[in-house]
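re: that complex we talked abt at group meeting.

here r the seqs, copy pasted straight from the sheet so there may be weird spacing, ignore it
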Amino acid sequence: AQKVTQAQTEISVVEKEDVTLDCVYETRDTTYYLFWYKQPPSGELVFLIRRNSFDEQNEISGRYSWNFQKSTSSFNFTITASQVVDSAVYFCALSLSGGSYIPTFGRGTSLIVHP
Amino acid sequence: NAGVTQTPKFRILKIGQSMTLQCTQDMNHNYMYWYRQDPGMGLKLIYYSVGAGITDKGEVPNGYNVSRSTTEDFPLRLELAAPSQTSVYFCASSYSVDTQYFGPGTRLTVL
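got the structure back, here u go
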């Protein structure tokens, strides 16, 4: 069975600091997908990124970047120059390519950015 | 495209009452899911469906029922509501293993 661990329950930073949210996953499958979702205080869940297991290229989108390392089974998310609007709960998730596609979510990391 | 819509947004039930949470998607996705999110917790899968007429249990199905008569709709039925079912309920849909698109959620309180 697969598992996603987000060991950081809550992170508190001051605006403009860089912050990294950790995600460690476990699966025996060789083909899988990893996701990050954001849940702002308003409550909706917003998709941020998807990565498949064959693509270890790091991704950058504005102030957001993702570091996927199969060797350590990690898919970490970094926010550069954090802003108050980044305050949210961030979820990492894993889906296998075969079977019923039921994703496994981590428990989430609550990020609080203080002005 | 409206994406995934859920109704109602809020609901208060008395213990023992029943209700149906509605979920509709207009993206022609085969896969649909129901999750619950308790305060400060992650998402727990209640039921899912891989297509019209096919449903299966997730991690926490007790006290709930679902049906999937069309591709678009995936209602969640609560029978004999209990305080333990107080939660925020999210419906989601996806095209196979692709990104899940979530509805805005239904906040349910059982008193």
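couple things i noticed - Chain B has a mean pLDDT of 93. Residues 20 and 43 of chain B are 20 Å apart (CA to CA).
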